Amino acid sequence: MPLTNLQKRHLRGMAHQLKPVVMVGQHGLRDAVVDEIERALTVHELIKIKIAADRDARDEIAAEILARTGAEAIQSIGQMRVVFRRNTEQPRIALPSG
């Protein structure tokens, strides 16, 4: 189920204080990096990812991350991407309804 604008705004506020959990560097998006993103999403649900690449490459890498993990984009500022994926077994973040 896609997130509403209210829920995305709530998650952006929560993400403001987060530090990047995963950094995608000069070697691009490797399977090990995707595995680490999967683990982080399972544990935290909401994470920041730093992508060190030029603008076009960042957009491609971010789209691939979303496709491979099933996460939803919350925010994109420069090299930082905030993504969210609900842990259906043990939800950690209470989302506002609406």
Uncertain segments are none
Content of β-strand: 15-25%
Morphology: globular
Radius of gyration: 13 Å
**Overall strand count:** 4
If you average the pLDDT, what whole number results?
Answer: 94
What is the N-to-C succession of helices and strands? Answer: HEHEHEE
Side by side, the strands of the main sheet go 1-2-4-3
Coarse structural class = alpha+beta
Counting DSSP H or I runs of 4 or more residues, the number of helices is 3
Task: Give a short account of the largest sheet.
Answer: 4 strands, mixed
State the helical fraction: 40-55%
N-to-C span: 12 Å
Describe this structure in words.
41% of the residues lie in helices and 22% in strands. It contains three helices and four strands, in the order H-E-H-E-H-E-E. The protein has helices at 5-15, 31-44, 55-69, and strands spanning 20-24, 46-51, 72-77, 80-84. A four-stranded mixed β-sheet has the order 1-2-4-3, sandwiched between helices.
Descriptive tags:
98 residues; alpha+beta; 3 helices; 4 strands; globular; four-stranded mixed sheet
Question: Can you summarize this structure?
Answer:
By secondary structure, this protein is of the alpha+beta class. The chain is 41% helix and 22% strand. The protein is built from three helices and four strands.
Record the SSE blueprint.
Layout: H1 5-15, E1 20-24, H2 31-44, E2 46-51, H3 55-69, E3 72-77, E4 80-84
Parallel strand pairs: 1-2
Antiparallel strand pairs: 2-4, 3-4
